[in-house]
Amino acid sequence: MNKSAASSSYRKDAGRPTVSSKNERVELQMKILRYRKLARQIATDPDTVRRIEELIADLERELREIDE
Fold first, then answer.
1. Beta carbons of 36 and 56 less than 8 angstroms apart
2. 4 within a domain of the structure (yes/no)
3. pTM of the predicted model, to two decimals?
């Protein structure tokens, strides 16, 4: 592939998320779901629930960073 063909194909894909970012996004979403489930299951311990909610907030921030 010549240089101009490589650069034009790069420009076509520039706006699309990469496969690795899609995988990372899915993994973060799964972690968020698991932590939310865990927080519901142990709702009797407010300190643990608070820590889990902080973890969830951090994961959601990471997720938003991927989307930007």
1. yes
2. no
3. 0.66
Angle at 62 between CA 56 and CA 66, to 5 degrees: 140
- The answer to whether position 60 is within a domain reads yes
Query: Could you tell me if residue 19 is inside a domain?
Result: yes
What distance in Å separates the CA atoms of residue 56 and residue 41, rounded to the nearest whole number?
15
pLDDT tens-digit series, residues 30-63: 999 999 999 999 888 899 999 999 999 999 999 9
| Residue 5 forms part of a structural domain | no
Number of compact structural domains in the chain: 1
